[in-house]
# Entry
Amino acid sequence: MKILVSIVVSILFICSSISADSYCVMSGEDGNIIEEKDMHKQQSVASISKIMTAIIVIENGNLYDTWKCSDAIDKAYGSMLYLKKGQEVSVEMLLYGLLLRSGNDVAVELAHHESGSIEAFVDRMNKKAKDIGMLNTVFKNPSGLDEEDGGNLSTAYDMAILMRYAIQNPVFVKISSSKYYKTKENGTWKNKNRLLFEYPFTISGKTGFTKKAGRTLVSAASYNDMHSIVVTLNKGDDFAFHEEKHTAFLNDYKNLEVLEKGTYRILGRNYTVDEAISMNLKKDTKEQIETFSYIDKKKLYVEVLQKGNEQVFSYMAGKGVRK
# Structure
């Protein structure tokens, strides 16, 4: 078994002059929390809910499916792309409308197309949330509107989990990172996520707003093979806040590989790790890092101990691991 032992890494001190009702800064590589405030506080999250809507569609639908818009769009209101009944659309086109322009009519149409009804689609959203570890989240609709049913309830932490999951999907990243999308009938759509235009390391994001939720924003940035995720709920100057947090993380952290890509013989079984497992650690930490591996219920785990803080980070090397 190959391990990395006694690796000197660093500590980070982050100053912040901007605050939010609740927020979470998460390392994209390992899911560790860099900074937070009330990140488990459950509240309405508005249109950042559409990240889950998009993931359900991308993972289960066909991007090139085409059909004519149904009567379902009559139920939509709020932020709209003004789709017309009978208008020919595709899954791909509607995903751009969902993530760039936050069209509620798009969310309703996609839900009906993929699951036959809003209720059936929402069931899939909630099942997916549980599957990926969003334990304080309840979805009630595919759009994030909260005037009629109280809206989708989640936390800054859970939405960071969702974004970390979503940016592993190249289709989601491609669509959500697009600044513009040109359509035949509805003109050119410009992404509402200002960070794509103002912050060069942005790779994804989704905006949201209702009177009940306030401004909500999820964003992801990448630099030097590191990824940072920031979620703010009920934050006024959210774009500046996200840029500040991404910059602090990308400047002051480094990527550490804790398990190399390769095949390992452990307790009579071969485990092939298709992708190296890495974590992000502060550059100036004086403490040592020790890495261990173990088997539990025929699954390979990697455990990282940060001495001094006595912090233990555990990763299941499940994705990309073959016996």
The helical segments are 50-60, 91-100, 104-115, 118-131, 156-166, 170-176, 195-198, 238-252.
